[in-house]
Amino acid sequence: MRILIVGPSWVGDMVMAQTLFQCLKQRHAECLIDVLAPEWSRPILERMPEVRQALSFPLGHGVLDLATRRKIGKSLAGQYDQAILLPNSLKSALVPFFADIPMRTGWRGEMRFGLLNDIRKLDKARYPLMIERFMALAFEPGAELPQPYPCPALQIDSVSRDAALGKFALELDRPVLALCPGAEFGEAKRWPAEHYAKVAELKIRAGWQVWIFGSKNDHAVGEDIRSRLIPGLREEVSNLAGETSLAEAIDLLSCAGAVVSNDSGLMHVAAALNRPLVAVYGSTSPQFTPPLAEQVEIVRLGLDCSPCFERTCRFGHYDCLGQLKPRPVIEALDRLVADPVEVE
C-alpha cells in the first residue's frame, strides 16, 4: 500500500505526525509512506524510520497558486493508493485531487466535499489531543485507538551529530542544559529571558554548560540571556539560536542532559529525542499538544485568564509567564535529573 501524507506546516505538528505514521505501519507493515511538506521539514522526516521519502512542497503557507498545485498533483498521478491530509484547509486537498489518488482521507473542513472521498467528521470531545486527531485517520471511522499511544521517536546518526559538535566547537566534557526560549507563535508563549538566565546561572554553578537553541528570530533573546550572567558564567553559554540548521539543532539537542523549553516546536523535538524536559506553559494548554515522552515535567500557573491561545496578552501583563518564577522550573529539573544524564 502506497500512502501520501500531506503534512502540517509547523515543526511541533510535524513531530507529532509521526504517531500517525507509526499507526499506519502497525496496520500495514509493508506500506510505503511519503510525506508532501515544506522543505524545512526534511530534517525531521529523515529522522523518522517510518517515512520512505520527503517530497518538498514549494508553496508557502497560505499561498494558493492553483497552477503549481495542479502540476505537482499531475506529477504524482498513479503513484499512490491513499492520501491522508493533516491540514484542514481546502488548499491542502488540491494536490491529491489533481493526482487522482483513489482514496483521499481527511477531516471535514473548508468546503472540501468533492476533493476528499473519505471525509471524516471530527468529534473534538472524543479526540481532544492533536495526536488522536492524526492517529484516527489511520483507522476506519469510529474505530478505537490502540493504547498506549505511540510517542514520536527521532533517530540520530552519530556521524552527523559529531559533525555538528565539531562545526560549533562544542564539547561534552560537562552535562548540557539546553534552553529553547523562542516560540514562533507569539510573545504569549515566551517565558521571560531573566527567568531563563536564572535557571542557566544555577545549573552552570552546579557544573553544567548551557546551549541555547532557536531560529534567527530567537538569537537576540539568547544574547539577552547571556548578558544577564556575570563574566565567568557567561562564557559557559553557547548561543546557537539562528546559527544552526534545523538538522544540526536536532542532532545537538540529542546531546542535552536536560532541556527547558517554551511550548514550541523544539519542545516537541526534545521530547521525541527522549531528553529530560521541563515544558513551560503560559497562554496555551498541555491538554491539546503536550510533549510526548516519559521524562517530562510541565510547569504552569493556570491563571483564570489562561489558556487564552492568543499570540499576545489581551491585558498586556503576560502574568501567566512573568509570574512563573524560576524556582518551580529548577525544582522540576532536579526531579528529572538527579545526576548528569549520559549521552546515548
From TrEMBL:
Which GO BP terms, alphabetically? lipopolysaccharide core region biosynthetic process
InterPro entries in alphabetical order: Glyco_trans_9, LPS_LOS_Heptosyltrfase, RfaF
Q: Which GO terms describe its cellular component?
A: cytosol
Supply the EC number(s).
Answer: 2.4.99.24
Top enzyme category: transferase
Q: Which Gene3D superfamilies does the annotation name?
A: Glycogen Phosphorylase B
Reactions catalysed: an L-alpha-D-Hep-(1->5)-[alpha-Kdo-(2->4)]-alpha-Kdo-(2->6)-lipid A + ADP-L-glycero-beta-D-manno-heptose = an L-alpha-D-Hep-(1->3)-L-alpha-D-Hep-(1->5)-[alpha-Kdo-(2->4)]-alpha-Kdo-(2->6)-lipid A + ADP + H(+)
Q: Which UniProt keywords apply?
A: Glycosyltransferase, Transferase
Q: What is this protein called?
A: lipopolysaccharide heptosyltransferase II
Species the sequence originates in: Pseudomonas xionganensis
